Amino acid sequence: MADQSMRTYLGDLARAGELIEVAGSVGARFELAGVLALLDRGPAVRMNTVDGSPYPVVGNVLNSRERLAHAIGADVADLLPRLADAVADRQPVEIVADAPVQAVALPAASVWAEVVTPTFFEKDSGGYITAGMIVAHDPVTGHRNASYARIKPLDETTGFVGIAPNHHLTAMARSAGAVGGLPVAVVLGAHPAIQLAACCYLGLGDDELEHAAALLGEPVRVARALTSEVMVPAEAEIVIEGLIHADRPVHEGLVNEYHGMYEDYGDGFTFEVTAVTRRSDPSVHVILPGLSSEHSYIAALPIAAGIRHALRNIGCDIVDVAVTHSGGGRVDVVVSIANARPGGAKRVIFGAFAAVSMVKQVTVVDADVDVWDEEHVHWARTSRMRWDRDLVLVDGVATDRNVPMQRDGMVTKVGMDATVTPGDRAVGPELAVPPANVVRAMRDLLVEEGWADRLRPAIVVHSALVDDGERIRA
């Protein structure tokens, strides 16, 4: 039976030298954000003394594809296929009677003393829970859901919850309004595989906890909440039980968003706390919001997997899908393809638009381009596109409220066919590169001499350098 806690994963990072401890005092207002921002693409961080938190606070935990792959026991190359399999597969949860996350039960009024709510950025309207996975059970329809939304304290036992109008959680909250609110539980510190599953784009009524089983290799162990029929991951760190009231609007004010700028979305819903449970020695997971790596990647990989799943019958081989960090892990997609018929790239573009409503731009490249390397993708656009022929503009498309440059819920979407077109200039498209075996030998030499941390794939060491199917990477 596999461990389903986040703490074991943090232990793995510590043993690998990828988790650092901050012993000094860190303020919850801006200082915690400063620590995470300074180490954004580096090690995970445990802050042992955070003002307002009785427990250690951890962040930057899932800030790279390598970390996410390790969390589900996969190689980076297998990460997206594993996630795509999880979108297509489900296993019922396993209910247990003795849940570590329910070792200590506390009244609702203790909530904001138990869970720190940092203020991250200068113009934010307040502090937030940012790593809270919300699991819900609609007593009217029976639907279950796991997803993410930010939560801001309001008074002793209530908070604001920010949910997009087209979110499944919004539909469930409105459905349950007639019976007194939607029962939910805000889960902190679930296993990374469960967190990833909660970010997948599934159908209304699909239970993300059931799809997490494909990533864990076994069903998710859950316990029934103390005050509702919600099922919570049994080995998480902290759970806040409560109700979401869609009929009690609360104005939010300015808040940062994944694209790195502020938004004022107007009203959100009220979250009423009914109980708190925790482990005997919990830690609190915090995700630096805005345009941070953890906030980006924890969404980007599940979105990429959903798009790959949606494109499976598009009429060409989907080699890889990336959702870029520069697009906040949400709106900018790159797809590499093989064996496409004429016009196949444009089918991919429209298929990606249809798969996820917030996707704003799609670039399609050939299989020799590394979709996760934005420099390499831009090289393909520069070297393989004719803008008069290969640019697709679609005006007046309905989109999400958080998409940059949308107006009245509409945006112009753009597709770019950066694949090789037969008949284009004879000098391309093959890259001029040293022999792959030579590059590999020189890489090994530099690593042996202690320069591993200085190696960076340049254009001559991109994925065009392939030897027996293995990409030459630092």
Strand content: 25-35%
Which ranges are low-confidence, i.e. pLDDT below 50, for 5 or more consecutive residues?
458-474
Gyration radius, to the nearest Å? 23 Å
Give a count of the beta strands, DSSP E runs of length 2 or more. 24
Mean pLDDT: 91
- Which percent range fits the helix content? 25-40%
Largest sheet: 8 strands, antiparallel
* Distance N to C terminus: 35 Å
Shape: globular
Total of helices? 14
Question: What would you say about this model in short?
Answer:
By secondary structure, the protein is of the alpha+beta class. The chain has 14 helices and 24 strands.
Blueprint (SSEs and pairs):
Elements: H1 6-15, E1 19-26, H2 31-38, E2 44-50, E3 57-59, H3 65-71, H4 76-88, E4 94-95, E5 104-106, H5 111-114, E6 133-137, E7 144-148, E8 150-155, E9 158-162, H6 168-176, E10 182-188, H7 192-198, H8 208-211, H9 213-216, E11 221-224, E12 231-233, E13 238-251, E14 255-256, E15 262-263, E16 267-278, E17 284-285, H10 293-310, E18 317-323, E19 332-338, H11 344-355, E20 361-366, H12 374-384, H13 387-390, E21 391-398, E22 410-418, H14 436-448, E23 466-467, E24 470-471
Parallel strand pairs: 1-2, 3-17, 4-11, 19-20, 20-22
Antiparallel strand pairs: 2-3, 5-16, 6-7, 6-10, 8-9, 9-16, 10-13, 11-12, 13-16, 14-15, 18-19, 21-22, 23-24
Give structural notes:
It is built from 14 helices and 24 strands. The strands form six sheets. Strands 5, 6, 7, 8, 9, 10, 13 and 16 form an eight-stranded antiparallel β-sheet that branches. A five-stranded mixed β-sheet has the order 18-19-20-22-21, with helices on both faces. The radius of gyration is 23 Å and the shape is globular. The chain is an alpha+beta fold.
